[in-house]
Amino acid sequence: MFRFKPIFLVCAMALLNGCTANPATGQQQFTALMSPGQEQSLGAQEHGKVVAEFGVVPSGSALDNYVQGIGRKITAGTERRDVTYKFFVLDTPMMNAFALPGGYIYVTRGILAQAGNEAELAAVLAHEVGHITARHAAERYSQGVLASLGVAVIAAAADSAQLGQAADIGTDLYMKSYSRGQESQADELGIRYLSRAGYDPGAMAGFLESLGAHDDLEKRMQGQGDAEDFSYFSTHPRTQDRMTQAAALAAPLKQANAVTGRNGYLDAIDGLVWGDSARQGFVRGQSFYHTEMGFGFSVPDGFTIDNQPSQVVALSRGTGAAIIFDSDANPRRLDAATYLTQTWMKGQAAGATETLSINGKNAATMSFPGRVNGRAATIRIIAVEWAPDLIFRFQIALPQGASPNLVDEVKRSTYSLHALSAAEKADLKPWRLRVVVASPGDTAASIAAGMPFDSYRTERFLVLNGMNPGQAVTAGQRYKIVSAAGR
Question: Which of 3, 125, 365, 392 is exposed most, by the fewest CB atoms within 10 A?
Answer without folding.
Answer: 3
